[in-house]
Amino acid sequence: MRYIMMDVFKTSIYISIPIILIALLKNKILSKYTFKLNYMICVLITLRMIFISSIEVYLPFEVLNKRNNTLRSIAYISENNGNIDDFFNLIFYIWIIGTVCVITNSIYKQIMFYKKMKNIKYKVEDENIIKILEKEKKNLKVKRNIDIFKVNGLSSPALIGFINNKIIIPNKDYNQEELKWILRHELIHFKRKDNLLKLLLIIASAIHWFNPLVKILNKYFKEQCELSCDEKVVEKFSVEEAKNYALVLVSSLRYKNTLKGTFCSSQFNNYEINLIKSRVEGILDYSRYKKGTSISIFIVMIAVISIFSINTMTNQNTAYASESVVSTDFKSIEDEFVNNITTRLTEEEKKQVRIVRNEDNSPTILVGDSEAFSINKSFVKADK
Asked: Residue 138's pLDDT is what?
């Protein structure tokens, strides 16, 4: 458990660095680049949060007896470390409880949302709406069947679900142009699998619930998800079309939202005035943003390297044995270890081997006048 918690804390520290940079640079530097780039940064940080460094495998001693010149050290769990282990056990259980609470709360909200919506949604069978949906699906090369529902008390259209996605829209009349843009927006969310990415963010946030910086990432992730979706919708729009699209976005503010959407739904609009302002500004001035292709490649490389380096740092240079080893006869383990070590020496080295006893009666193997190997009850090292 100690090693699990150390890996979690270490990963949390790593992801804190880019989150702090986002908070410091989002208005001065990141705002000059496309929302797509900013959204990709959020997704990469989220994935990195989930891929904590590899958890150590607790190996039985019998496996270690096999000849393996790559094995450099063997660390035993000592009975003398009881206080430290108890502390980390307590931290581990607190972390587990916090993680379960965050996930349970998210699941509860999701269930309540669907429960409230169950009796106030109506499947759309209007041929005009279905025709517009099929046309937009064809333009975006979406082949999956997606149903549309009208929902009372909803102010903004949204894409709901993770696998069997559905589009929900307020129970009010839209003209054909408004429907085209609304459905295109939600289909882009579907095509990018934004709801699944939001689910990953919930899992990552649950793992790192103790890190206050995760709240900053959650908010920025949500903002960039919607902004980048708008960006995709209007990328081929004329100035007039972009203005009309922005008006549709603003017009939904007039409707009262009595059914609050969950985090794992992609809404066309919400009531955060600052975000709506940013979306309108982004729609009307899309061309001024830099694509940042080279930065994108660099960020991806950093993310991949960070995962790889952490996993290899804890590779089989050190192997941790289970507690059952401690309770066995240490003398037999000692003899087996000494025999195993001497078999790795050359014939010339074997002639110079001497075994001396330390104050605690543990052996030290000397090759000539040089110490080659030593062993004691809490730590074994092989420095050849």
From this structure: 92
